[in-house]
Specification:
The chain has 107 residues and is mainly alpha-helical. The protein has six helices and no strands. The protein is globular, with a radius of gyration of 15 Å. The protein starts with a helix and ends with a helix. The C terminus is likely disordered.
Length: 107
């Protein structure tokens, strides 16, 4: 949250991520990016329909970067959890929005 606020991301937007791409909160591109992220986390692949919609807005390098960004943060989360790294003392874990169903098992 502390980094998100610095770049103009609101608490409401962070909470909406957990509700998914179909909440009506997002622009079409944002919804497709969120759907692609969920698909990568759930099935390790962006489905053809989502990929085609993203390709209307993103070039080939950006599409590759999308998969790398999701993969990198997933890898970091696994390592941090495996090592038992604690949150910074000033962070309150209760302030974080709840994970989507199945999210706790993912990471």
């Amino acid at each position: 949250m502390r980094l998100a606020g610095r770049v103009g991301i609101t608490t409401e937007e962070i909470e909406a991520v957990g509700r998914g791409a179909d909440t009506g909160t997002w622009s079409a591109l944002e919804a497709d990016l969120l759907a692609a992220t969920d698909q990568l986390l759930d099935r390790y692949r962006i489905d053809d329909a989502t990929y085609a919609r993203l390709a209307e807005h993103l070039d080939a390098a950006q599409l590759i970067e999308l998969a790398f960004v999701v993969g990198t943060y997933t890898c970091l989360a696994m390592v941090f959890k495996n090592l038992g790294l604690a949150l910074d003392p000033e962070l309150d874990p209760a302030a974080a929005p709840p994970l989507p169903e199945g999210g706790a098992a993912r990471l």
